[in-house]
Amino acid sequence: MGESELRKAASMLGRAERIVVFTGAGMSAESGVPTFRDALTGLWQRYDAQQLATPEAFHADPALVWGWYEWRRDLVRRTTPNAGHLAVAEIEARVPHAVLVTQNVDDLHERAGSAAPVHLHGSLFAPRCSACDRPASVPDGGAEPVGGRRLPPPRCAGCAAPVRPGVVWFGEALPQSALAAAVEAAASCDLLVTVGTSGLVYPAAEIPQVAARFGATVVQVDPGETALDEVADVNLRGTAAQVLPALVE
Ligand code: BV8
Ligand code: ZN
C-alpha cells in the first residue's frame, strides 16, 4: 500500500460529511473469526454452503445446521473486537452522518461501540422460530458444540416448531428494512469505505456499486484482490486492523 494512497484516503475521510462503512468477513478476521472464501482458512473450504446455509439444508437436517451455527456463535462469543472495529466506531463518532452497513453476523461492531450497524445478513444472536418468526432466546455458556457436532434446535415457546438461526441463508430475501436503509445511505453518501469483503454475494455487493453510481468516492481496504477493485477509486491493500486505525489517526 503506497503511503500517498493512504494519505489521499485519509484526507477524503476528513472532508466527507456523509459516509458509509461497508464491512465483510475480513473485518473480523484479525479477531479470530474465520472468513468464508479465503483460500486456506475460509469456512467454505471446509464446509459445504449448500448443506449448511440454505433453508433446504435446515429442513433436511435441522440438527446438523443448528449445531454448526451454535459452534460459530460460541466461537464469536470468545473473540473481541480488533483495532479495525474500534477505528470504524471512531469514524462514526467523528463524521456528521455515518452509516455502518455490515454483512457480518457477529456482534463485534456493537461491542466496539458502533450503536446501530445495519445487519444485511442477520445475526448469530437473534434466533427465531422457523414457522411463526417469534424471537427465541438461546442461553449462552451452556454446551459448547464443536465443529460438525449435531445439536437438535430448541422448540419455539409459542408453536413448538424448531428454532432457526437468525441469519439470511442463500436463496432467502434480505431483511427489507435493512436493505432499504443500506441502499438509501449508499445513494446519498459522499464516501463509501468497503472493508474485507470479496464482493461476490448479492444483493449486498450492490451497495458499493450504488454509492459509486450516485457519485460517491469508494475506498477499499482489503489485503487481496476483490470483485470490487474496479468500483474502488482508492485500493488500500492491507488488513482492517492495520489500515483503518492509520486512516483515522
Ligand atoms: C437472494 C449469512 C433472492 C449466513 C450469507 C446475482 C448473481 C449471482 C448470484 C446471485 C445474484 N443475486 C443473488 C444471487 C444468489 C446468492 C448469491 O449472491 N450467490 C453468489 C455467492 C453467487 N444470493 C442470495 O442467495 C441472497 N438472497 O438473492 O434472495 C430472493 C428475493 C426475494 C425473495 C426470496 C429470495 C442471500 C445471500 C445471503 C447469504 N448469507 N451469510 C452465514 O453467515 O452462515 S453469505 C456469506 O457471504 C457471509 O455471511 C457474508 O456475509 C457474505 C459475504 O462474504 P464476505 O463477507 O465478502 O466474506 P469472504 O470470505 O467472501 O471475503 C473475505 C474478504 O476479506 C476477502 O476479500 C479477503 O481478502 C478479505 N480479508 C481477509 N483477511 C482480511 C481481509 N480484509 C481485511 N482485513 C483482513 N485481516
Ligand atoms: Zn413458533
From TrEMBL:
It is found in: Cytoplasm. Keywords: Cytoplasm, Metal-binding, NAD, Transferase, Zinc. Zn(2+) binds at residues 129, 132, 156, 159. Its cofactor is Zn(2+). Residues 1-249 form the Deacetylase sirtuin-type domain. It comes from Micromonospora nigra. Belongs to the sirtuin family. Class III subfamily. NAD-dependent lysine deacetylase and desuccinylase that specifically removes acetyl and succinyl groups on target proteins. Modulates the activities of several proteins which are inactive in their acylated form. Substrate binds at residues 69, 72. It catalyses: N(6)-succinyl-L-lysyl-[protein] + NAD(+) + H2O = 2''-O-succinyl-ADP-D-ribose + nicotinamide + L-lysyl-[protein]; N(6)-acetyl-L-lysyl-[protein] + NAD(+) + H2O = 2''-O-acetyl-ADP-D-ribose + nicotinamide + L-lysyl-[protein]. InterPro entries: DHS-like_NAD/FAD-binding_dom (IPR029035), NAD-dep_sirtuin_deacylases (IPR050134), Sirtuin (IPR003000), Sirtuin_cat_small_dom_sf (IPR026591), Sirtuin_class_III (IPR027546), Ssirtuin_cat_dom (IPR026590). NCBIfam families: PRK00481.1-3. NAD(+) binds at residues 103-106, 196-198, 240. 2 residues (Tyr-69 and Arg-72) present in a large hydrophobic pocket are probably involved in substrate specificity. They are important for desuccinylation activity, but dispensable for deacetylation activity. This is NAD-dependent protein deacylase. GO terms for cellular component: cytoplasm. PROSITE patterns: SIRTUIN. Pfam families: SIR2 (PF02146). Binds 1 zinc ion per subunit. Its EC number is 2.3.1.286. GO terms for molecular function: histone deacetylase activity, NAD-dependent; NAD+ binding; protein-malonyllysine demalonylase activity; protein-succinyllysine desuccinylase activity; zinc ion binding. The active site is at residue 121.
